[in-house]
Amino acid sequence: GKKVFKIDASIPAKDGIFDDTLLGAFEQYFQTNVKLHGRKGKLSDKVKVAMDKNILSVSTTMQYKKRYFKYLTKKFLKKKSLRDWLRILATGKQGYALRYFNIRDDENEE
């Protein structure tokens, strides 16, 4: 069966944190780092990575754990040092979305 995993980056993209170059880099990162048969960067036609309207989709006929793409996204965010601002949340069975951490002021809480 064919599976499509989606990672939605539209929230940070709307704010300009993920600009076009970063979105391109994100897509490129997935193309070079997703492993197929234990080898990076040799995806052939079994795994397709595409960027469409700020949503990265990975369509594949191979068995992948959804968590693997979460792991790769975290690595990418760390590399771009955005890990402090963005987190990755599950949306449904095959998707993730990048969201901001809710930063609260402690003074306002009391």
Describe this protein's structure:
Helices cover 34% and strands 31% of the residues. The radius of gyration is 15 Å and the shape is globular. A hairpin with a 2-residue loop joins β2 and β3. It is an alpha+beta fold and 110 residues long. It has helices spanning 10-14, 20-33, 66-79, 106-109, and strands at 3-8, 35-36, 39-40, 47-52, 55-60, 86-91, 95-100. The strands form two sheets. Strands 4-5-1-7-6 form a five-stranded mixed β-sheet. The protein has a two-stranded antiparallel sheet with strand order 2-3. It contains four helices and seven strands.
Helix content: 25-40%
Biggest sheet: strand arrangement: 4-5-1-7-6
How would you describe the shape? globular
Quickly count the helices: 4
Structural class label: alpha+beta
Unreliable parts: none
User: Averaged pLDDT, please?
Assistant: 90
Order of helices and strands: EHHEEEEHEEH
Largest sheet: 5 strands, mixed
Could you tell me the strand content as a percent range? 25-35%
The total strand number stands at: 7
How many angstroms does the end-to-end distance come to?
52 Å
> What does the radius of gyration come to?
15 Å
